[in-house]
Write a structure and sequence with these properties.
Strand content: 15-25%
Structural class: alpha/beta
Order of helices and strands: EHEHHEHHEHEEEHEHEHEHEEHHHH
Helix content: 40-55%
Shape: globular
Radius of gyration: 21 Å
Bound molecules: 3-isopropylmalic acid, magnesium ion
Strand order of the largest sheet: 2-1-3-12-11-4-5-10-8-9
Distance between the termini: 34 Å
CATH class of the largest domain: Alpha Beta
CATH topology of the largest domain: Isopropylmalate Dehydrogenase
Oligomer: single chain
Largest sheet: 10 strands, mixed
Length: about 375
């Protein structure tokens, strides 16, 4: 089959990790006889540099016409430390989410057995963790009214939600739970926030449509603590935009590195796939960034296209690279051999194409028995 993929490498390590995801997709195309037609587009700081606009119209058009969007990362330190900047890279991503209606952000969090000691958390607490975070992505405080008073002495960010916005992601979260451990935990702050009370009321009603799924409620402060104390209690976490942003970074500690966390952002017409790690400018161009989150995002993209076997082939290759220790420095002790980003990408692609060869060859390289890297 032929698929049109919009590719937005973005800023920082974005282009490096996206190049590895494309290698994995190329291997899938070869093995399963697909054609992926890529159209590159600009977004973020690089788009501001070239066009003055973090999200050029052309990018929106390319994305709208695609079957799926693969995105790297956004952000540049020159904007982070300048609160007065009028144009910011992140505005590009937020606008794209809104324009395309990508309201449902899914962030899977898994503790890989092999990496269990990479997490600072206790092994026995995290072993077997498998959580899917459903974060609402186009509403809440991110998109509410924003004001700065004329004298610069006060500022305002409004948080609003409608029943419609809450319902559409909630249905997707419950449907996902039906195929998992059949539990949804709604994370909110209903003891304080009116919007959270609307979430509770709406989600409680929706839960009645899915009687086999258990619904639990947690205040976000408690949820932040429970995620670290006992992450295995969670199956699907359903939450609003800002809480989801915060707890998904926190949850990445369970997997041992934020460099492992992939995500999908789904709307009714379009879907975007991205690693959640951000642009990591310190690592830009050094070939040390972990490409696995991007590669796993490509697997989520394939799932979205209904290519389940192909997605599993990528996931198996990633698991193999982890099990063989062909991983980047973030997953290694200081003195252990770390593979460069590009070599992890080569391994994953090679494993998809030709499992046995790459297995032996790369294991030797990894163990220092070969110098061919
Ligand atoms: C994320 C990021 C974004 C967000 C930033 C880059 C705007 O942190 O995708 O989690 O806050 O949503
Ligand atoms: Mg974030």
């Amino acid at each position: 089959m032929k698929y049109n993929i919009a590719v937005i490498p973005g800023d920082g390590i974005g282009p490096e990790v996206i190049a590895q995801a494309k290698k994995a997709l190329k291997a899938v195309a070869d093995v399963y006889d697909h054609v992926f037609i890529y159209k590159e587009a600009l977004m973020g700081a690089c788009a501001i540099d070239k066009t003055g606009n973090p999200l050029p119209d052309e990018t929106i058009e390319i994305c709208k016409q695609s079957d799926a969007i693969l995105f790297g990362a956004i952000g540049d330190p020159k904007y982070d430390n300048d609160p007065t900047a009028k144009v910011r890279p992140e505005q590009g991503l937020l606008k794209l989410r809104k324009e395309l209606g990508l309201y449902c952000n899914v962030r899977p969090v898994k503790a890989y057995d092999k990496l269990i000691s990479n997490s600072p958390l206790k092994k026995e607490n995290i072993k077997g963790t498998d959580i899917s975070i459903f974060r609402e992505l186009t509403g809440g405080i991110y998109f509410g009214v924003k004001e700065l008073s004329d004298d610069g002495q006060s500022a305002f960010d409004g948080c609003a939600y409608t029943v419609e916005e809450i319902s559409r992601i909630s249905h997707l979260a419950f449907k996902a739970a039906q195929n998992r451990k059949k539990k949804v935990t709604l994370v909110d702050k209903a003891n304080v926030l009116e919007t959270s009370r609307l979430w509770r009321k709406t989600v409680t009603e929706i839960a009645k449509v899915y009687p086999e799924v258990t619904l639990e409620y947690l205040f976000v402060d408690n949820a932040a603590m429970q995620l670290i104390l006992n992450p295995k209690q969670f199956d699907v976490i359903l939450t609003e935009n800002l809480f989801g942003d915060i707890i998904s970074d926190e949850a990445s500690v369970i997997g041992g590195s934020i460099g492992l966390l992939a995500s999908s952002s789904i709307g009714d017409k379009n879907a975007l796939f991205e690693p959640i790690h951000g642009s990591f400018p310190q690592a830009k161009g050094k070939d040390i960034a972990n490409p696995l989150a991007s590669i796993l995002s490509a697997a989520m993209l394939l799932q979205h296209l209904g290519l389940y076997e192909e997605a599993t082939a990528i996931e198996n290759a990633v698991e193999k690279s982890i099990n063989l220790g062909i991983t980047t420095v973030d997953l290694k002790g200081k003195d252990a051999y770390a593979a460069p980003c590009s070599k992890v990408g080569d391994f994953v692609a090679d494993y998809i194409e030709n499992q046995n060869d790459s297995n032996i060859n790369f294991k030797n390289i990894h163990m220092g028995n070969s110098t061919i890297i």
